[in-house]
Amino acid sequence: MKLRRMNLDPGQVTKGQSPMPLTSPLASNGDSKDSWDESKGLYESVGPTKKPQTGPVRRARKVEGGIFFPKPENAITIAVSSRVLFRTEKEQKVFEEKGVEEYLKYQVQHENEPLAPGPAFPFVKALEAVNTHLRQLYPDSEELFDIVLVTYNHAHVGVRLINTINHHNLFIERFCMTGGSSPIGYLKAWHTNLYLSADAEKVQEALSEGIAAATMFMAEKQMEVSETQLRVAFDGDAVLFSDESERIFKAHGLDKFFEHERENENTLLDHGPLKGFLEVLGKLQKKFYAKGHRLDCPIRTYLVTARSAASSGIRALKTLRAWGLEMDEALFLAGAPKGPMLEKIRPHIYFDDQMLHIEGAAERGTIAAHVPYGIAQMYSKRKSTNSTK
To answer: What number of other Cβ atoms are within 10 A of residue 153's Cβ?
Structure first.
């Protein structure tokens, strides 16, 4: 079963391959570094070949004094790359075969043709549904999800992206088109709470700067997900928690891991890269609870971990409780495959640090996002290196 990086990323990830490139990736049209600086401009004579396609009319929420946009420091900012929000395989092929100039001309010629939804699309739609509920309950609050579209693309491509966003009736007003430069500095300026991209190297760069980030993949099939409730599933170790326990397991085996967890049952685990994102989800959930919506809250969170409940689960639960974080559901699978459980949950996104579980989730149609953090990445690299000898 193949997992596809968005936009036909040069090496499609299959089982047994490293989730992280061992060499610099090839140039890409949207989210990976390329020679945009070689492009001096687009041919002004090139124009769109089709008339704009009509779609639903989008209305920004208006308040006294103008259109309502939350300040970045007050919002929950989700930065999404164009390659995971939309599908751009045709454009990628033009870029790889004909270069930057032809790619830019192609985008202008087709700027009135909306791009199809990518793997992050249902997640973004669910975020907007949560915002609708929040605005009804808290009309003046700026604690809302704020979507920022982040892309390496040249500004000329922005017209097609805007047309696509309007066609799909998405509420995305903030763009960051870097023309080949790294977007990481801008992510920090936006106070980004989560960054989703198809570029594993940029995801690693974001993580190294303390920004929660993950690399998204699309499976061959995709399950239907809820349109009224945002569902987010997390692995535990090296995602919500640090990789401390994972290191014990990798170095000394399962028995030593169980022993270590029993001895440290009352010692809190350190935080992992996505703890902050779970915190902001929990903060919004409490706003719904305060208005009597605990049972029908439009946000639901899940812990899906390979840990055993009796042997190693108590430390994880005590850590979450000490952090003041609630999980709506916790599944301790004791090493069983995660794919079947995720198929029942139907999350909009599932975060895991190991490609084995990403692949298992994708086989069942779950949109999964890889968090390249912790000791498991070192083992993935070794396995890939050994397999090439």
So the answer is: 28
pTM above 0.85, yes or no: no
DSSP bridge partners of 83? none
Helix (H, G, I), strand (E, B) or coil at 27: coil
Which tens digit of pLDDT belongs to each residue from 58-96? Answer: 444 444 344 457 776 789 999 999 999 999 888 989 988
Only one residue has tokens 């309502």, namely 68
Catalytic residue set: 235
321 Cβ neighbours under 8 A, 6+ residues apart: none
Residue with tokens 């919500």: 240
5-11-16 Cα angle (round to 5): 95
- Type and span of the H or E element at 194: strand 192-197
Pick from 145, 147, 149: nearest CA to 160: 149
CB atoms within 10 A of CB 333: 15
Residues 6+ apart with CB under 8 A from 200: 5, 19, 20, 21, 25, 215, 370, 372
- Which tokens belong to 24? 């610099």
Q: Which residues of 116-152 are buried (b: 16+ CB within 10 A; e: fewer)?
A: ebbbbbbbbbbbbbbbebbeeeeeeebebbbbbbbbb
- C-alpha span between 275 and 297 (Å, rounded): 20
Q: Whose structure tokens read 């003041």?
A: 324
Angle of the 244-252 helix axis to the 254-263 helix axis, nearest 10: 140
Pair 207, 372: CB distance under 8 Å: yes
pLDDT exceeds cutoff 50 at 236 = yes
- What confidence tens digit (pLDDT) does each residue in 160-184 have? 999 999 999 999 999 988 887 888 8
d(CA 367, CA 359): 10
Q: How confident is the model at residue 4 (pLDDT cuts 50, 70, 90)?
A: low
The answer to whether the beta carbons of residues 73 and 187 sit under 8 Å apart is no
Say what the pLDDT of residue 14 is: 32
Say if residue 71 is exposed, middle or buried (CB neighbours under 10 Å; 0-12, 13-18, 19+): exposed
Q: Show the DSSP H helices in the chain as ranges.
A: 82-85, 89-98, 100-109, 121-137, 158-167, 184-189, 200-208, 244-252, 254-263, 275-290, 314-322, 339-345, 355-363, 375-387
